[in-house]
Write a structure and sequence with these properties.
With 414 residues, the protein is of the alpha+beta class. Helices cover 32% and strands 32% of the residues. It has helices spanning 2-5, 45-56, 69-72, 114-126, 148-163, 185-195, 242-254, 256-274, 313-320, 331-341, 394-413; strands spanning 10-15, 28-40, 60-64, 89-101, 104-109, 143-144, 169-179, 200-206, 209-215, 218-223, 226-230, 232-237, 283-292, 296-306, 328-329, 352-356, 362-365, 370-374, 379-388. It has a 19-stranded antiparallel beta sheet that branches. Helix 2 runs antiparallel to helix 9 (313-320) and helix 6 crosses helix 11 (394-413).
């Protein structure tokens, strides 16, 4: 499916990697070959998306980039360097949608017949199995605009802002990048997904720009009048020894700092959803859930709400974006501090990729644990971050960034 979809200039492949969850709807879903595309910058993007949906009322796939914050909060801006160049928002109506669900394949598209669906099915089966190298050129040095010294200095400065009462928590990120490197994006995704399978894995191509994503986090899902958000705050390493690993999970569950961070983001999500939810329906369905992934344990909470009938779905997205787990609290002030202290424009990183159904439901991930690549200028980028609070140890926050980056670095270095 992935190799077949990648032959088109625009495609989106989403894979839950068989993670068991009552919230999942598809094992994998592929959208390929854009019939119509919406590409807009922050300013009037969410109304444009609603109008685009109203016109077509069909499957739409695409992304919300972090810098849509400049629309949701007037006065914010993004001045840092961006080596990748994804637009602030892009959605497309695909010619073909392939869904894997409960051992079945569903293939559909614009004016598709059974013969059309069968042709796509056989084309996928006939795609040559070819194992490509991730890199097509020599390995380039891994660089960063925030080295260890500058990172520690920035974290301490952010802690002074917390001490002064500016904010409570800041999600602070740093970029790693390589220049003049040629990679094969499907192989990049396959390697990343093999090393770190995740329930919100995604491969996304938009012309010369690519994303390989192994995200463990859902931003938001809408099914009918119910919407859920599942923020992650709290991370621990895994250990091959089952006894030690269980101890690490228990330590994460009882860690006062991690619980405080999780509660902060849960309160932020509750507030975000309250702007559009029916009064009294915002509930915490699960608090401090400990979930294990390929390389780490995470603390995940689930917040649910009921929406009023006829509410435009873009209002739910607009009032909750960017997601609180990637900003901090209070949201507006920390987004100003993020712009002040980070050195790279986030772009698609800490945005969201997903789909909108013909009925106006949707499901979006959080773009983390992701490698972004621009084939035009041969620029490869991946960012990692952590939540900074007054009680944070700057060195441990640095180590958390390195832990999250390790798998992505291994993907490209071999």
């Amino acid at each position: 499916m992935l190799d077949w979809g990648n032959q088109f200039n625009i495609c989106c492949f989403l894979d839950n990697n068989s993670y068991d969850s009552p919230w999942h709807q598809y094992e994998a879903i592929l959208a390929a070959d854009a019939l119509v595309t919406l590409e807009v910058t922050a300013g009037n993007a969410f109304p444009a998306l609603q109008a685009f949906y109203n016109t077509h009322q069909d499957w739409l796939f695409g992304h919300l980039a972090y810098d849509l914050k400049n629309e949701t909060v007037p006065g914010l801006q993004s001045q840092h360097y961006d080596g990748i160049g994804f637009p602030d928002m892009c959605f497309f109506l695909p010619r073909v949608v392939i869904q894997l669900q409960k051992g079945q394949v569903h293939i559909g598209g614009e004016s598709f017949s059974e013969q059309d669906a069968y042709a796509v099915y056989t084309a996928c089966l006939r795609m040559p199995v070819h194992v490509a190298n991730v890199r097509n050129s020599p390995l380039q040095p891994l660089q960063s605009r925030l080295d260890h010294r500058r990172y520690i200095t920035a974290v301490k400065a952010l802690q002074q802002h917390i001490l002064q009462g500016d904010c409570y928590e800041v999600n602070f990120c740093r970029e790693n990048y390589m220049e003049q490197i040629s990679v094969h994006p499907p192989a990049l995704f396959a390697q990343l997904n093999a090393l770190s399978p995740a329930p919100f894995a995604a491969y996304y191509r938009l012309d010369q720009r690519y994303m390989a994503c192994s995200s463990p986090e859902r931003f938001m899902q809408k099914k009918g009048d119910t919407v859920i958000s599942q923020p992650i705050k709290g991370t621990s390493r895994k250990d091959p020894d089952p006894v030690i690993d269980r101890q690490l999970q228990q330590q994460l569950f009882h860690n006062a700092k991690e619980r405080a961070e999780n509660v902060m983001v849960v309160d932020l999500v509750r507030n975000d959803l309250s702007h559009t939810a029916l009064q009294g329906t915002v509930k915490v369905a699960e608090l401090f859930g400990i979930y294990s992934f390929a390389n780490v344990h995470h603390m995940i909470s689930t917040v649910a709400a009921q929406l009023p009938p006829q509410l435009p779905f873009t209002e739910v997205l607009r009032t909750a974006f960017p997601m609180g787990s990637m900003t901090g609290a209070p949201k507006i002030r920390v987004m100003q501090l993020i712009e002040q202290y980070e050195q790279t424009r986030r772009g698609l990183y800490s945005g969201a990729v997903g789909y909108i159904t013909p009925a106006g439901d949707f499901d979006f991930n959080v773009v983390i644990r992701s490698m972004l690549y621009n084939a035009g200028n041969q620029y490869l980028s991946f960012q990692t971050g952590s939540a900074i609070t007054f009680y944070s140890d700057p060195e441990k926050e640095w180590e958390e960034c390195l832990l999250k980056a390790a798998v992505m670095e291994k993907t490209i270095t071999g």
